[in-house]
Amino acid sequence: MQTLDIIKWPLLACLLLPWLLGYMGLHVVRRGVIFVDLALAQVAALGTCVSILLGHDVHDAASYAWSVSFTLVGATLFTLTRSEHQKVPQEALIGIVYVVSAALGILLLSKSAEGKEELQRSLVGELLVVSPQEILKTFGLYAVIGVLHFVFRARFLELSQIEGHGKKTELSTIWWDFFFYALFGLAVTSFVHVGGVLLTFSYLIVPAVCAAYLANSLRTQLVVAWCCSTVASVGSLWVTAVADLPIGATIVCGLGLLLVLVIVYCRWIRRPVAQAP
């Protein structure tokens, strides 16, 4: 009973929140910008580092506002760096943003008395001590983002399928692309405050990649991605409770193990399904 009391809120967070990350991960995989989520998560963490240096608590509204502001700047940058004739792949620019943001975060927190602890928190989060209010607030935001994605799903899916092929660069497309990245950044920022950069990236990409291996249609991929997140989360939380391991890192490893099992299944038991156009 004591173990259940400890993990009940992390378990609820892992059941309620990753569904939107998995859906957005499917968009990211189709766009071919796999590390955009990692870069935006690190940019959000950089905003938190700035707020800490200015004397704000990591959990207050000012800290969240700084994270969102930095994320929107990153969303603008990623929108404007997509062009019809790219001499440099956008993925390279995304990687540069990630590395520079991480380095700036280290420099800023080197001036903080609790810099080492904050760096660790930004990577692995505070899932074990997440509050019910934080879960409900994040779930409410995710519900709004989910509704917006549902309303504008045709446009978002069109953009994800043409991303990287240089077919459209008109202003309307740029604005829709920014809208997508802005919503994406809000989702990433919120989960970084809960689970950290590494877990955010894992929930975004690993279930989406598993779904791409196992299913064809977007609807089926959504179900598969959610099931993968749920299975890995529940199994990892059980391991955490039994072996007394760090919860965030354990879930990341659990998701990685699940991906290995999926690849083995598709490689030696059956052929992978054809990629959706």
How does this structure look, described?
There is one protein chain. This protein is mainly alpha-helical. It has a single domain (2-269), classed as Orthogonal Bundle (ABC transporter involved in vitamin B12 uptake, BtuC). The protein has eleven helices and no strands. The protein has helices at residues 2-16, 18-31, 36-53, 61-80, 90-109, 115-124, 132-151, 153-162, 171-214, 218-243, 247-269. α3 packs parallel to α5, α4 (61-80) packs across α9 and α9 (171-214) crosses α11 (247-269). The longest helix has 44 residues, at 171-214. The radius of gyration is 18 Å and the shape is globular. The chain starts with a helix and ends in an 8-residue tail after the last helix. Residues 162-169 have low confidence and may be disordered.
Q: Describe the sheet with the most strands.
A: none
CATH class identity: Mainly Alpha
In percent, how helical is the residue content? over 70%
Q: Provide the succession of SSEs.
A: HHHHHHHHHHH
Number of strand segments: 0
Distance between the termini: 48 Å
Shape: globular
Total domain modules: 1
CATH architectural arrangement: Orthogonal Bundle
Radius of gyration: 18 Å
In round numbers, the mean pLDDT is 81
Structure classification: mainly alpha
Q: Please count the helical segments.
A: 11
Q: Find the CATH topology.
A: ABC transporter involved in vitamin B12 uptake, BtuC
Specify the CATH homologous superfamily: ABC transporter involved in vitamin B12 uptake, BtuC
**Which stretches are low in confidence, meaning pLDDT under 50 for 5 or more residues running?**
162-169
Subunit arrangement of the protein: single chain
Beta fraction of the residues? under 5%
